[in-house]
Amino acid sequence: MFDIAPSELALVAAVALVVIGPKDLPRAMHFVGKWVGRARGMARHFRSGLDEIVRQAELDEMQKKWAAENARIMAEHPMPAPHEEAHDAHYAAAPAMTPLADAPPPDDAPAPPAPVGEKG
After folding, report:
1. Cα dist from 119 to 109, 110, 114, 115, whole Å
2. Mean pLDDT value across residues 75-88
3. Angle of helix 25-76 relative to helix 6-20, nearest 10 degrees?
4. What angle do CA 27, 29, 33 make, to 5 degrees?
5. Per-residue pLDDT tens for 46-57?
6. Per residue, what are the HEC states of 53-115?
7. Comparing 112 with 45, which gets the higher pLDDT?
8. Both ends of the chain: CA-CA distance in Å?
9. How far apart are CA 9 and CA 2, in angstroms?
């Protein structure tokens, strides 16, 4: 980020020691460190927001490409409709089936047993 050589850093530290003084230097360094941390946090938040915007734009672009490719493939290879027509025709010709509970009993079926407790 910044190109600061060790000699330049030592010069800044010496000037800060002379200007601020040895008594207030720890408080000043704490204050500077706090503000540098806040600035880094804001930069990190800003960068993650930009990364999210770029990622969303890339996803939108990929979805458009996939939709176009899907439409091209579906145009080249349409779904066969005769299979569905044959399927519907087969079931339309089949006799209607009734559920067993609703079906009448056959003529040669024995009579159902009488409920317990009734005489018949």
Report:
1. 21, 18, 8, 8
2. 68
3. 140
4. 120
5. 999 999 999 999
6. HHHHHHHHHHHHHHHHHHHHHHHHCCCCCHHHHHHHHHHHHCCCCCCCCCCCCCCCCCCCCCC
7. 45
8. 103
9. 11
Q: Are 17 and 25 in contact (CB under 8 A)?
A: yes
Distance between CA atoms of 12 and 20, rounded to whole angstroms?
Answer: 12
Q: Is 6 left (phi over 0), alpha (psi -120 to 50) or beta?
A: alpha
What's residue 20's pLDDT?
Answer: 87
Instruction: For tokens 């927001």, name the residue.
Output: 49
In sequence order, what are the residues at sequence separation of 6 or more whose Cβ sits closer than 8 angstroms to the Cβ of residue 16?
Answer: 25, 28
Tokens of 65: 């490409």
